[in-house]
Design brief:
230 residues; 14 helices; mainly alpha; 75% helix; single chain; elongated
Length: 230
């Protein structure tokens, strides 16, 4: 008897769901704010398109849905929105679709987006989606560093420390770690903690002259974007 009742309930549920369009059923899971944003997004509002994409991307205000998130990031990205271009690149990278990721990172980098520039540098540095090109990676890391992106400064430090630009250079690695430590923002706590852990160990391995040079060069420099604003 219990089994028959369960089957009947399932049958009735299927009938009730089929009476409504799929889109209407999906709307039950959207917040009122997201519904309003979708109306604006469909009318061409770029900021609303980003917000709708974020809702689907994070699952806040809408069911988490990678396909819908990418759809709305792409709409905004194709309209020239730099944040959407970076986010779309990031989603492609997460899916290991590196060529598509690089395409959108480079679009955003042309508009001066620091994170996208660093991400493009990483793909060249590691040879993901393109032939490995350390020099191109260094060039783009340097550009991102000049835009104030601390992670790019740390990546440059790694390149010097690992000898990826020639002979390993602990002093220049130290210089860039000092710079990264100075410009890591509040949202980069993990990076700041890592730098605070590794810098003293590196300094203990250096000569007094190299250490003095590291600190002087590290503290005297500012990203070009910050220098221009002052």
């Amino acid at each position: 008897m219990v089994k028959i009742m369960n089957k009947n309930l399932i049958f009735l549920l299927l009938i009730s769901l089929s009476a409504f369009p799929l889109t209407a059923t999906a709307d039950w899971f959207l917040s009122e704010e997201t519904k309003a944003l979708i109306v604006k997004a469909e009318a061409g509002d770029a900021e609303a398109q980003i917000q709708v994409a974020l809702a689907y991307d994070t699952g806040k205000g809408a069911p988490q849905d990678r396909s819908n998130a990418m759809k709305w990031y792409r709409v905004a990205a194709e309209g020239g929105n730099v944040e959407a271009q970076n986010s779309l690149g990031s989603m492609f990278q997460e899916g290991k679709e590196y060529r598509d990721a690089l395409f959108w990172y480079e679009k955003a980098a042309l508009q001066g987006h620091a994170q996208a520039t660093n991400s493009a540098a990483y793909l060249y540095d590691m040879g993901l989606g393109v032939p490995q090109d350390r020099n191109k990676g260094f060039e783009l890391y340097s550009r991102a560093a000049d835009l104030g992106w601390a992670e790019a400064m740390w990546n440059i430090a790694n390149m010097y420390g690992a000898g990826q630009l020639g002979t390993a250079d602990a002093r220049m690695a130290c210089v860039w770690i000092v710079r990264a430590s100075r410009f890591a923002g509040p949202r980069e706590r993990r990076l700041s903690a890592h730098l605070a852990n590794i810098l003293p160990r590196l300094e203990r391995s250096m000569t007094p002259d190299d250490l003095a040079s590291c600190r002087d060069q590290g503290n005297a420099w500012s990203p070009a974007s910050i220098a221009k604003a002052q």
